[in-house]
Write a structure and sequence with these properties.
Number of domains: 1
Order of helices and strands: EHEHEEHEHEHEH
Largest sheet: 7 strands, parallel
Shape: globular
Radius of gyration: 15 Å
Number of strands: 7
CATH class: Alpha Beta
Distance between the termini: 11 Å
Strand order of the largest sheet: 4-3-2-1-5-6-7
Bound molecules: adenosine monophosphate
């Protein structure tokens, strides 16, 4: 596996969630900063997205946000990142995050987070990349999704090899172990 220097985090933008999800995001940001790994994410200032970014920045880490101008009436971009890249479309945002990242971590989130995760997994299925994808199943948040993904493979709508395209972990330290950092 290529040395991991930057990590993309897909996660929720909602603030209307239990505090523990924001806290664990902030702790992960701190861990990235301690290891000198750049955070790449969607550039928003709210929810788990904002928490991971703040956790990284507050501990001296480097953060790149990729934010689509079209989103400004729904979400706000973070005002104090090391680097903010403003793009025109959601597709450019995804590509911008993909190109700058050595690995992808899926934190708890909503529909947008799932969209981002499945795009990166389907790109892997199409052999467009071999970058690690780690699903952080914090407090069993992703259990129903993981069960669905297993079911899809069992019934035959995806190949058994697809199960090797992602790792599911329950602890932050395990994320770092999978990435070898
Ligand atoms: P959510 O998980 O729904 O809170 O969304 C997390 C982030 O994903 C937010 O910044 C959303 O703007 C973003 N997002 C939502 N839908 C898409 C999409 N189709 N493509 C790229 N990003 C998206």
């Amino acid at each position: 596996m290529k040395e991991i220097k930057s990590v993309c985090v897909f996660c929720g933008a909602s603030n209307n969630i239990p505090r523990k999800f924001l806290d664990i995001g902030a702790t992960f940001g701190e861990m990235l900063a301690q290891r000198g790994i750049r955070l790449v994410y969607g550039g928003g200032d709210c929810g788990v997205m904002g928490a991971v970014a703040n956790g990284t920045m507050e501990h001296g880490g480097q953060v790149t946000g990729v934010f689509p101008v079209s989103l400004r009436n729904i979400e706000n971009e973070h005002q104090s990142l090391s680097e903010i890249i403003i793009v025109d479309t959601m597709h450019e945002r995804k590509m911008g995050m993909f190109e700058r990242s050595d690995a992808f971590i899926v934190f708890p989130g909503g529909f947008g987070t799932m969209d981002e995760m499945f795009e990166i997994l389907t790109w892997k299925q199409l052999q467009l990349h071999e970058k690690p994808v780690v699903i952080f199943n914090y407090h069993g948040y992703w259990d129903p999704l993981i069960a669905l993904m297993k079911n899809i493979i069992e019934i035959g709508f995806a190949k058994p090899v697809n199960a090797t395209y992602y790792k599911v972990v329950t602890e932050l330290d395990e994320i770092m172990d999978v990435l070898g950092v």
